[in-house]
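Entry type: protein chain
Record version: 2
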Amino acid sequence: MKKIILILFLLKLISMDIGFGQIYEKYERKITKVITKEFRSPDFIIEQILISDSLNENQNIQIFTISREDSILGYLCVNNATACRVGGCPVYSRDTHSGNYELFSFAVFYDFSLQVKQVKILEYAPEYGYEITSSRWLRQFTGNKDCNIQYEEDVDAISGATISARSLIDNVNEVCEILHEIISGKETEISQITE
């Protein structure tokens, strides 16, 4: 019985690591497919930008440069956002420690001028709010350069997915702000990930 409990505990730790850890590695194939299409190049290099703890408080955000030879084509930001857990969270809150939320993973692809090329939901497991995975709804982010996207103003409300949509928008704004901080020269350490 103790062995079973220990195994279940270890599996829980592993699953938490996937949820909060290295998102890029888990979804590398999906990300590569989008980069190849959006940047019209099968030959690119992805390099991770190491983010200081002061900018990356939640430790989930990963930011990468997308380049070919010596020129930067764009940027990639991956992160987790929250959706409502069954039976909980009647209103949106950035406090995810209440236990009423489940995570989903997303990526934002930017061109060289920091304009959004695409927002992609990498995985959406929660039972509620899956409507935000619609490519039609996600296209509303395309072309945006602002780090202050507003729900129901810049992006349409979506029935059945209010909490997921607000969380995604807040997180897209957050990665945008961090990316702007990095590009403005406050962060410079880059490490190559893959080709």
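Comment: Helices lie at 2-20, 23-26, 28-38, 135-138, 162-186.
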